[in-house]
Amino acid sequence: MTRTLISGARLLGDATGDLLVQDGVIAEVGSLGGTAADRHIDADGLVALPGLVDLHVHLREPGREDAETIATGSAAAASGGYTAVFAMANTSPVTDTAEAAEWILDLGRACGLTEVVPVGAVTSGLAGERLAELGLMARSRAKVRVFSDDGHCIHDARIMRRALEYIRPFGGVISQHAQDPRLADASACCHEGEVSGRLGLPGWPSIAEESIVARDVMLARHTGSRVHVAHVSSAGTVEVLRWAKAQGIAVTAEVTPHHLVLTTDLLAEYDPVYKVNPPLRPAEDVEALRAALADGTIDIVATDHAPHARHDKEHSFLDAAFGMLGLETALSVVSDVMVASGRLDWADVARIMSSRPARIGGLTGQGASLAPGSPANITLVDPDRTITVDAAASRSRSRNNPWHGRTMRGAVHTTMYRGRVSHTIDTDHATEYAQ
User: Can you give the CATH number for the domain in which 257 is found?
Assistant: First the structure.
């Protein structure tokens, strides 16, 4: 029986208190000075949050272990304060069978740094032609509840309708990569506008996203099922979501850290680190996304952590792979942009980065309040710590980090997964993390 005392933490609601963790569970919360414990973590000045949950992560294994593995991605997640991540299905082979989903589950459990939850493909091989083994994946040991062809839009309305109908009985959700391929084809790589015209880059118009989202919320209403919009990037999509929620339609949405900050102007020097899908948008879209996250129109922050090996990313802009790293910096971005500005408080951060994504993904044991009896999935944040991002220091196997050199306020101090320290900057507890 191992007992860890976390003392002097700032709990949600601004009270200060102690947490006693015993055998992977929060045993007591309150004023616990003098309580016997095997380990002590001094959390004076730190904010205690339920462990962060990321609904949208690419871990690349199997198939592209040169870019990331479940082990390296789990270490990056723990460094970023995450105690659960949802691993997207666009691996090689694709996670489109129960066996593939269980294999991902088991690899994640073997790492033991964070809970790795497999996302199942909606269509076989991500081809968009016939449904994958949705029911078998849902009934497997992996208990898949989130399905996505991420990286590929489910553009066939009949396929999308059937998928929504199929997943409804077991409470599943379809996470849609909203990109009409007739409006933004595979060559599209820059927000369609003045910048794309000046740079000579194929344009990706906002309407390519907005039209699919509008269709999908109507399909969700028709089927009585749930749809989740991945990586919202435009003000127009926010308008569609706001309307759909006012109608009571079962739609949720996420925004990435990079779409909350970075703008299309960064493409001026053709740096491929800023090539992402959907593309970076103008400042007015960024402002609309921040406002929507603050007012609840956008439900959560998800990273779309997309590691790439150097030989895939370091090309001319047109030839480079889409995607950015995000796991290790997401909390700092949200702290710096949303909390420091007063648009969110730490209780809001717990909602958008822990409890709400856990509920959307049907994940039990994560996102719970830090109360006696809850699993000891805990993230301690230093709200006043200033960091300067160094891409070379990443625990990810890849280095396509758009935040390199940026200074932010607010950072993860310690991550505890099931009562065990999975990451810390406290050298007194670094040994446990290393083991």
Answer: 3.20.20.140
Token pair in block for residue 204: 């990706």
Residue 365: inside a domain, yes or no?
no
325 in Cβ contact with 73 (< 8 Å) = no
Residue 198: inside a domain: yes
Examine the domain organization and report whether 202 and 68 are in the same domain.
yes
Q: Which residue numbers are catalytic?
A: 304
Domain identity same for 33 and 71: no
For 428-433, which contacts have Cβ atoms below 8 Å and span 24 or more sequence positions?
Answer: 429/39, 429/41, 433/78
CA distance 372 to 83: 18
- Render 129-182 in DSSP notation, one character per residue: SSB-SHHHHHHSTT---EE--TTS----HHHHHHHHHHHGGGT-EEEE----TT
Note the pLDDT tens digit of each residue in 134-176.
999 999 999 999 999 999 999 999 999 999 999 999 999 999 9
Q: In this predicted model, what pLDDT tens digit does every residue of 325-362 receive, in sequence order?
A: 999 999 999 999 999 999 999 999 999 999 999 999 99
Predicted pLDDT of residue 14: 79
Are residues 32 and 106 both part of a single domain? Answer: no
Average pLDDT, the chain: 96
317 and 279 within one domain: yes
Tell me what percent of the residues of the chain surpass a pLDDT of 90: 96
In terms of residues, how long is the chain?
435
Domain that holds residue 426: 3-47+374-396+405-434
